[in-house]
Design a protein that fits this description.
Strand order of the largest sheet: 7-14-13-10-11
Number of domains: 4
Structural class: alpha+beta
Distance between the termini: 85 Å
Radius of gyration: 35 Å
Number of helices: 20
Largest sheet: 5 strands, mixed
Length: 693
């Protein structure tokens, strides 16, 4: 039996749910009356009211961004992006289960299959984690953090709006569109779009057939008798033989024409440069011979009925042939000027048919039917799963990072994250464009590095920014620049956290109004932004050197490796007095440096905190030969130093250096051993490469 209190709580929940429904439905009623602005304004007010009490409504977020993009309300795009992400904070799946399924069905075409299935499972179990997962997906794909909106989220909904209006040959997909909608959602508008109709030209096919028959007629079998003459059981002279071949070619041509194929085709092509492929990415649409349904086809062979590839005998001659290749040749002839790929296929198919009699026999039919189809499918599999205008028209900055773990003053582990970026190529390109403008002064560029930490619900909990120097000094490889670096401190958190890293290059002169930089009108990014990059990783992937140790034990931090550079990093709480290379390569005219911290050092009888350090550098090449010629590796060491440290504190931070001027180019290993009397030895090591100046 329900208690009075329980009844009251249930009633309040019902009234609250009803109130939410009323707010959502009232906005819909405005839409039905054609009052679009009123509906959007009403939902904006509703969002503000719900946000004040920590509530959200997923349906409002989805409908708002849907209506805004369908009606080209570009001024509302930043707000639409914000409201959509706010709506994903809803904590109950039950009331919106159907709407969530519809949403992930739209997303299934741009996320990995395993991710889509996982989301499905979460929704079936009414697990609210799915909302955070969807929100995280859009945060990870946000091309420009800190801008007024999530650009790729808006692009996605703009594509959905276009699909609904333009691709309605049938509605066989979850996008309520034909298959063109899927490709448009994934890749956007094609770089080249062509439509046409296949023409089974009688004279052209008869010419192909006559040429094939003529080639075969010239092949003499082992008995010295020409094959077609033998098949026709005739010893006719050349005139009769030509007459026979012409009639046979006409008969075969009639059968080819009688098959017929779906005449209309539509071909979308994406330029190879945009999809990073050796050939253009091609998609073919039309009515499949197998079903008569308009859809995405694997290849032009789908226009041909499969039974066309069966072996056929010509009556009264015993001659056997396969019609499929002749239909292929005709189709690729129509397509050969659509793309170089089709021209190559046409030439290859033509050469094979004209030179190889067996190519149109049954034993070879499956080969021809699948050969070119497999090539087109392989190209699609090698292509990126999605393509955004921001991938094509916004220069990308390459990012990477290293992490090192330490203890803070309270003996809680934290990480120093070193972020590397390579913005130089973007700057060079933009600077070259600037020089084309008369009277343009050299533009000024700013590099911004940012680290953003999100909680499990993908709510931003902290953000750190840095503006590192940009060096155009090259490494030892021509054209390879020294990366710009930033150091960030990340406290360890046992809770799962998501960490995003961003880099952006801004042209200050654009903001100052001194320089207009032409940019694709479809890009919705700040005009001053010339390039951007991002990385996402899970906090659990950070270094775990100290996590399994008791924070009262004698312990050692990670080993930080580097070398002296021509410039110093700005001194701050994360000050490391040397440059930390991302690939551990150091020139032999620079001193090698390394840094570490020691914690919970025991007090000695002298009253000081005392510990010992040994470090050695081993040549990996010599180590290899020592395993063959020497009984121990003692002689492998280039350097082997033992030191004793005394400190007034139980923790010690130091950095040491090694002179490597006499090191030959090659691979080495730095091994650091730290211990105190009576303790186990703690070993930290790293590999590095020495190169000539």
């Amino acid at each position: 039996m329900l208690t009075f209190t329980t009844c009251i709580l249930l009633l309040l929940q019902f009234l609250q749910a009803s109130a939410f429904d009323n707010e959502y439905e009232k906005g819909l009623s405005y839409l039905e009356s054609g009052e679009i602005s009123e509906a959007l304004n009403y939902w904006i007010t509703t969002r503000d009211s719900l946000a004040e009490i920590g509530k959200s409504d997923f349906r409002i977020g989805v409908k708002f961004i849907d209506v805004a993009t369908k009606n080209d309300k570009e001024s509302l795009y930043p707000l639409a992006s914000e409201i959509y992400l706010w709506a994903l904070q809803q904590q109950e799946v039950g009331p919106i289960q159907n709407e969530l399924l519809e949403e992930i069905n739209r997303l299934q075409y741009i996320v990995p299959q395993a991710q889509y299935e996982y989301w499905q499972e979460l929704i079936e179990k009414k697990n609210p984690v799915v909302l955070a997962k969807i929100k995280g997906f859009w945060h990870k794909n946000n091309p420009v953090h800190g801008s007024s909106m999530n650009e790729k989220l808006i692009e996605h909904w703009e594509r959905l709006a276009y699909i609904e209006s333009n691709f309605q040959n049938n509605t066989r997909t979850d996008l309520n569109s034909d298959d063109r909608g899927i490709i448009y959602l994934q890749y956007g508008a094609p770089d080249n779009h062509q439509t046409g109709s296949f023409t089974l030209n009688n004279s052209r096919i008869q010419f192909y057939t006559r040429e094939i028959l003529r080639q075969q007629d010239e092949e003499i079998d082992i008995m010295g008798q020409d094959r077609l003459s033998r098949r026709s059981n005739s010893g006719a002279n050349a005139v009769h033989q030509n007459y026979y071949l012409d009639n046979l070619a006409k008969s075969i041509t009639d059968k080819v024409i009688s098959y017929g194929i779906s005449s209309h085709y539509e071909i979308w092509t994406y330029n190879r440069e945009n999809v990073n492929l050796p050939e253009n990415l091609i998609f073919i649409f039309g009515k499949a011979a197998s079903s008569g349904e308009f859809r995405l086809l694997k290849s032009p062979e789908d226009f041909i009925p499969q039974n066309a590839f069966r072996l056929t005998s010509e009556r009264n001659t015993g001659y056997q042939y396969n019609l499929g290749p002749l239909l292929q040749l005709s189709i690729y002839n129509d397509l050969k000027f659509t793309d170089d790929k089709f021209l190559d296929i046409y030439n290859d198919l033509h050469d094979q048919l004209m030179s190889n009699e067996s190519i149109i026999l049954e034993s070879k039919s499956n080969y021809l039917m699948n050969k070119y189809s497999d090539e087109l499918i392989a190209m699609r599999k090698a292509a990126p799963s999605t393509l955004s205008i921001y991938d094509q028209d916004l220069e990308s900055i390459e990012l990477s990072f290293n992490t090192y773990q330490f203890y803070d003053e309270s003996y809680q582990p934290y990480n120093i994250l070193v972020l590397y970026s390579l913005p130089q190529e973007s700057i060079i390109k933009d600077h070259a464009a600037a020089q084309q403008i008369d009277g343009m002064l050299n533009p000024t560029y700013i590099l911004n590095h940012q680290l953003v930490i999100f909680n499990n619900h993908w709510e931003e909990i902290s953000s750190i920014q840095d503006y590192p120097e940009i060096s155009f000094e090259e490494t030892l490889k021509p054209g390879e620049f020294i990366p710009s670096i930033s150091l960030f401190k990340i406290p360890h958190d046992e809770n799962r956290q998501n960490i995003n890293l961003y880099a952006q290059i801004l042209n200050r002169d654009i903001n100052d109004g001194n320089y207009y930089k032409p940019q694709n009108s479809d890009l919705k990014t700040p005009q001053a932004l010339i390039s951007a990059g991002s990385l996402n990783f899970d906090n659990r992937l950070m270094s775990s050197t100290l996590l399994n140790q008791n924070n009262t034990q004698f312990s050692v931090s990670d080993l930080v490796f580097g070398y002296r550079a021509n410039f110093d990093l700005e001194e701050n709480e994360l000050f490391i007095p040397f440059y930390i290379p991302k690939n551990n390569v150091v020139r032999n005219d620079l001193d090698l440096h390394f840094m570490f911290e020691v914690y919970n050092i025991p007090r000695s009888d002298s009253g000081y905190y005392e510990f010992q350090v040994e470090y050695e550098v081993i040549s990996e090449r010599k180590k290899f030969f020592s395993r063959i010629f020497r009984p121990t590796s003692e002689n492998n060491a280039k350097e082997k130093i033992s030191l004793t440290f005394e400190s007034e504190n139980p923790r010690w931070k130091t950095h040491l250096s090694v002179d490597i001027t006499d090191y030959n180019p090659g691979n080495y290993r730095l091994i650091l051993t730290v211990f105190h009397e009576g303790s186990d030895k703690i070993v930290r090591e790293t590999e590095f490469e020495v190169v000539n100046k």
